[in-house]
Amino acid sequence: MLNQTTETYPKAVLFDLLTALLDSWSLWNRAAGSEATGRAWRAEYLRLTYGCGAYVPYEELVRQAAVQVGLRESAARTLEAQWLQLAPWNGTKEVLRKLAPHCRLAIVTNCSKRLGEQAAGLFDIDWDVIVTAESAGFYKPDPRPYQMALGRLKVNANEAAFVAGSSYDMFGTAKTGLRTYWHNRVGLALVEGAQAPEIESPSLDALLPWLREFNSSKGTSTS
Which of 55, 111, 126, 205 is the most exposed place for a label (fewest CB within 10 A)? Predict the structure, then answer.
């Protein structure tokens, strides 16, 4: 049961899954055979998914991105076979455990329903809502995945916050009206045209203090 005595937290916090909470970068690097190739593959995948709009099979986009950076299609099959080796970033489980008594928790992720639910299950959390690109019918940053999560949570955008893993998310959160914390663990550059988040940090250390002051803070962009 949520702690109703805490009035400053938002009603819900929505999380990107595969970059904000999980170290998917290391998994892609292993499947690719090197860090350089893995990062190129992952960057191409992000470009494809965030430019895709209406949902096409996630696994197909992963395969297509692999081919476009010179990898064999088997790299995509290796990635899927090792999917449950995804590891949470240090500190994420503790943050979620501390946050759970105060807010409803949701995931909004760009992947298939099957793989999204498997990855979400790596956390010992009873997620209130899990929205995948497949279930929404659209890839982020189209507003519809975020809006679906808010609708299922029965909260307004101004009553919720979003924790992004990539600055591509900022296009969608800006359209949706979600205040955003960018957990930029690997030091990605802000995508051209994306709105800066209220907070950008290589860790989640500043997340709980920010959320505790959610209703009173005006928010400034920091890095």
Answer: 126
Per-residue pLDDT tens digits of the chain, which is 223 residues long: 454 444 589 999 999 999 999 999 999 999 999 999 999 998 898 888 888 889 999 999 999 999 999 999 999 999 999 999 999 999 999 999 999 999 999 999 999 999 999 999 999 999 999 999 999 999 999 999 999 999 999 999 999 999 999 999 999 999 999 999 999 999 999 999 999 999 999 999 999 999 998 887 654 444 4
Q: Which residues of 139-160 are buried (b: 16+ CB within 10 A; e: fewer)?
A: bbbbbbbbbbbbebbebebebb
- One of 3.40.50.1000, 3.40.1350.10, 1.25.40.10, 3.40.50.1860 is the CATH number of 12-23+86-212, namely 3.40.50.1000
Query: Where do the CATH 3.40.50.1000 domains begin and end in the chain?
Result: 12-23+86-212
Burial (CB count within 10 angstroms: exposed 0-12, middle 13-18, buried 19+), residue 206: middle
